[in-house]
Sequence to fold (136 residues):
Amino acid sequence: MSFHLKVVAIDRLLFEGDIDKMQVTTTDGQLTILPNHIPLVSVLKIAPLIIEHEGEKKYLAISGGYMSIQRHETLIVADIAEWAHEIDRDRVEEAEQRARHAIEHPLEYVDPAVAEKELQKAINRLHVFDLYHKKA
Fold:
């Protein structure tokens, strides 16, 4: 048994199709969504989205958004989302270092909350990259 999933970001449609299950992290915690899940609307955290269909896993780095589970479709609207295979590890490591530096050496023009969020996004992207390359 499967269910229909649609994942969109501001700039593109990332995925649309039937899946067997998915793992997602909301503000209420990590959830595994299976067919016939109860209706739900939830805010997404910066975390991986793992989509599974017929034994194959797909990995997305999600940087916030929301999820709506309805009877015939699950919809994820992400603030920013990136497939694991699109992630440039070197660029993400540089972004992580910049964010860590901004947190450790605060400047008047850098909001610490923004630097912390950028660090969370970089760590999430590295984690998704590693999940994808570990299974390959």
Residues 112-135 form the longest helix (24 residues). The chain has a mean pLDDT of 93. The first strand starts at residue 3 and ends at 9.
